[in-house]
Design brief:
This protein is mostly helical and 428 residues long. 61% of the residues lie in helices and 5% in strands.
């Protein structure tokens, strides 16, 4: 250090200097400690969240079934009209023949309650698909009803006083006899992903919600991706800098912070009220989500384009390229990793939105998988909302399982964003 021609040397043995250095080192250590503690707390909360969801939802990934002998003989199933058979009586008799001691009508009705209400329809569909089975006794595995499914999974404790549980001692004894005979099994519950929604928890699945979510995100992507990128590039590269464009930029930034329920109200008034589009349709849901996603994609596009060094533009212009050749041939390819990342993050945000979809009716009870974008459907977030609001206890585990499925999709989309960013990233 020089001052008026003289060199001042630092006395590192000075006690005051040592105290100041020690104080700086302590401050640096405190800052590192606080940052590490904050990161550890965030990881802990995330682990608790995921762990609680997995713990509460893993029982829904298996389903309790019982294997029985069904007598498809006599006059209860006609060969020329197998879909009109008395399958309710067939399923009731399949259980009754295993418990001949149950003779009263009340007990017989309670015994028939072991099987899911959908067992008769599963048997019917099996016979309709294989009419050659009519007149024979067949072996078929069908799901049990929700209380017995919970009993098999330990969610109902047989040691609980009889007055405090859904199943009485006789019903538990019947089911334990089936377990002792080896008729009960717990295979992987593929119906959670392949079945549509149902009033019965043991039959409810996410197929309709998954299809509706796919259609809605497809519409959202087809609208928001080209429009958002085009708007971002125009505002950053071609638009004149004046008060009008400044006002547009401010409004776009403000729209990115508008609550999602406002977009739902806008869609309710415009898409359903003015345009008369069908209620609960994924087309309307996708258009609503596109309105929400557009500001995010526009902002991400502008930031990615602005991050391209000016020297790239100057070099291309000096070689005689026009402005649109510079933008499309040089700027956009270099900005594409950031653009794709912003787009996927915007779609991931749209995937988890519930409020706007509730306002346009995508929370209806739909028992069929939609075949087009114009048919009524639900989405994963609204299906979770429906199940969480259901009084049946069996929907509690399915709600957590559906949240796990939704988180898996979000993680997959973020992984795709990271991959695309690495794949298209260029060095300059």
């Amino acid at each position: 250090m020089r001052d008026t021609g003289h060199i001042h040397r630092v006395d590192w043995t000075d006690p005051a200097l040592k105290r100041r250095l020690a104080a700086r080192h302590r401050s640096d250590g405190y800052l590192r400690l606080i940052g590490g503690a904050a990161l550890g707390a965030a990881c802990l909360v995330f682990a608790l969240l995921v762990g609680s969801l997995v713990y509460a939802g893993y029982p829904a990934f298996t389903q309790t079934h019982v294997t029985l002998q069904f007598d498809v003989t006599g006059d209860r199933v006609a060969l020329d009209a197998p879909d009109a058979g008395n399958y309710r009586a067939i399923t009731r008799d399949a259980l009754g023949q295993l418990f001949p001691e149950v003779t009263s009508r009340k007990d017989q009705r309670a015994l028939a309650g072991i099987l899911s209400n959908g067992a008769q329809y599963i048997l019917r569909d099996h016979i309709v698909a294989n009419p050659g089975l009519i007149g024979h006794t067949i072996t078929l595995t069908v799901p049990v009803s929700d209380p017995y499914d919970q009993l098999a999974k330990g969610l109902i404790d047989a040691a609980t006083p009889e007055a405090n549980r859904r199943l009485n001692d006789a019903e538990i004894a019947w089911f334990q006899k089936l377990q002792a005979d080896g008729a009960v099994s717990r295979p992987l519950n593929t119906g959670l992903l392949t079945n549509p929604d149902s009033r019965f928890p043991e039959l409810a699945g996410l197929a309709g919600a998954l299809r509706g979510t796919f259609y809605a995100l497809l519409v959202c992507f087809l609208i928001s991706f080209p429009v958002g990128i085009s708007a971002g590039i125009y505002l950053e590269e071609f638009a004149p800098k004046n008060r009008f464009t400044d006002m547009i930029e401010v409004n776009i930034n403000n729209l990115a912070a508008v609550p999602s329920v406002v977009f739902g109200l806008l869609a309710l008034a415009v898409f359903l009220g003015w345009f008369g589009l069908p209620r609960s349709a994924p087309l309307v849901g996708g258009m609503t989500l596109a309105l929400m996603t557009l500001p995010t994609i526009i902002i991400a596009t502008r930031v990615a384009v602005k991050a391209v060094p000016p020297s790239i533009r100057d070099a291309a212009l000096s070689l005689g390229a026009s402005q649109h050749q510079v933008v499309l041939g040089h700027v956009v390819p270099l900005a594409m990793p950031g653009i794709l990342t912003g787009t996927i993050i915007g779609l991931a945000q749209a995937l988890g939105e519930t409020a706007p979809l509730l306002l346009i009716g995508m929370n209806a009870f739909i028992t069929q998988v939609p075949d087009s974008m114009l048919e009524p459907a639900t989405a994963l977030p609204t299906q979770i909302f429906i199940w969480a609001d259901s009084p049946e206890r069996g929907f509690a585990t399915r709600t957590s399982a559906a949240i796990c499925v939704l988180l898996a999709f979000l993680v997959a989309m973020n992984a795709v964003a990271i991959y695309l960013r690495k794949r298209f990233e260029r060095q300059w």
